[in-house]
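Blinded run. Sample ID left blank on purpose so nobody reads anything into the name before looking at the predicted structure. Input follows.
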Amino acid sequence: MALDNLDHTFAALADPTRRAILARLASGEATVTELARPFDISLPAISRHLKVLERAGLIARGREAQWRPRTLDAKPLKDAANWLEQYRRFWEDSLDRLEEFMGELQAEAPKS
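Blinded prediction complete.
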């Protein structure tokens, strides 16, 4: 997995509108108009968000007659989750060591 792919993924996920678009696409394909409906922004603004998501590889553009539905492509999300996994393990290990240390301190503390 290339780091610049991760950069594109995390940059795309940094915006709440784009995250909402991805959440909507998780339930199935949608047109630009359908994706724009819940937002109080223009269609060109939605199109710019979609371009960012496409550049990150998070969505794909289909072609059916006159309309071009968008679909979710979750592979970049899996790559990001795999990258984050190493840090989850780090924090879990750190917290486990802290818990062990606290247990030792409590065992050494004088009982009153």
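Unblinding after everyone has recorded impressions. DSSP finds five helices and two strands in the chain.
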